[in-house]
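Appendix B. Chain record.
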Amino acid sequence: YDRLIAICWPLRYSTITTNLRMLLIIAGIWSLVVLLEIFPVIFAARLPYCSSREVQSCCCEHSPVYKLACTDTSFNRQLGTAKTLTALLGPLTFIIFTYAIVVVAVTRIASISQRWKAFHTCLTHLLLVLLYYMPVMLAYVLGNLRLIQNFDLYTAVLTVSVTIPPMLNPIIY
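Structure tokens predicted for this chain:
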């Protein structure tokens, strides 16, 4: 959003990107995150658990919890898949859409040096997006296709894929 406004409407940046608008965007995203997380917790809490209650994961995620239930968990699996796809593909779709608009706007800039400056502004962010989304999506696909049989290995791959990219933020920026 920030780069879209900065590149497409640079002269109006300070009037478009106000503190109130940023607060509303942040509040909206946090509300969506809470809603995405609360429904799986409510549905998993309603399941009957009759055997082990030890979660086989490094964090108490939805999938390892509902798998402990002693009833049909197909709805919970579908809910988990929908939640994951929404959380991954929603922001990625927004990022791709905004960068498509940015690319169109940048190609209209006459000066090559100004085009390069605009692309350079976006390059670091795109690098971070790729560093985050590629390993997470790879881990998700490998897990869903059951190509990683060892659950500890899958947990390690997923943990590393969500830990390393944020640690690289300060280095890249």
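Further analysis of this model is presented in Appendix C.
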